[in-house]
Amino acid sequence: MKRKPQKKKSSLSYQERIYRNYEQSGLVSSYVRMVETDLHILAPVNVEDEALRIVSDTRSRIESYIRENPFFADSLHPLSIEPTAPSIVQEMLVAAQAAGVGPMAAVAGAIAEAVGQGLHNSGVEDLIVENGGDIFIDRNRKCTIAVFAGTSPLTNKIGIMFEPEKMPCGVCCSSGSIGHSLSLGHADAVVVTASSTALADCAATRLGNEVKGNPGSIQRALNVAKDIEGISGVVIIQDDQLGVWGDIELERL
Question: What are the DSSP E strand ranges found in 48-154?
Fold first, then answer.
């Protein structure tokens, strides 16, 4: 299952995943890796076996669909919804339509949420699932997600705070300066929050593509964000510049 490169974050090296070293949740870390999927899961107990089963099943559904519909993996534009497609594929198609990108822009977020929901259904409560910068959060207490923005002076200096009533939700990041995949923008970090992690993932891709090196591009991206139905907030960092829109509560770290 290859993802057409649309944003920088799908192929992070160990050095670029150093943000995983900063977590202070008090939860137990589990790691699950399968081909491109690279999960860091925080939960009250180790969940590697169950999470691996969910990842395998989820990827199998997406890969089977791609074998029958190869254009799904390659399109950089939204595709029509197919009612007979697997539910996770339909979720990706809906998210892509809302954000105006190809459906594979949703894959990391969709898998993160599928794992989180699957673990919750099996009785695991209070968890965070991170998949290469795309995060599904389902905690029973207030938590703060730090914003990692590469070499920007703002990296790990600000965080987004979530109250329990705002969860579960997705928090996804796209970057034009971190990772090896092609990005059409130059932001150090574009973070999007939404009730759907797949939608947050797609919207981060779309907005990341809008942030160029010219003055005013951050505001232009924020204006685009207002038209993406379903997202709740956006944080954009480019060098020492910060832009924020929506229902976002920032914390100084």
Answer: 127-131, 134-138, 143-146
Structure tokens at 98: 């809302």
Residue at 227 is within a domain: yes
Which residue type sits at 68? E
Q: What is the average pLDDT score of the chain?
A: 90
**Residue 215 Cα distances to 218, 221, 234, 238, angstroms:** 8, 12, 18, 11
How far is residue 229's CA from residue 208's CA, in Å, rounded to a whole number?
17
CA distance 47 to 141: 20
* Residue 185 confidence (pLDDT) above 80: no
Domain assignment of residue 4, yes or no:
no
Instruction: To the nearest 10°, report the CA torsion of 210, 242, 113, 56.
Output: 70
Decide if 8 contacts 98 (C-beta within 8 A).
no
For residue range 101-160, list pLDDT tens digits in order. 999 999 999 999 999 999 999 999 999 999 988 999 999 999 999 999 988 999 999 999
Overall domain count for the chain: 1
CATH number for the domain harbouring residue 143 = 3.10.520.10
Q: Classify the phi-psi angles of 163: left when phi > 0, otherwise alpha if psi is within -120 to 50, otherwise beta.
A: beta
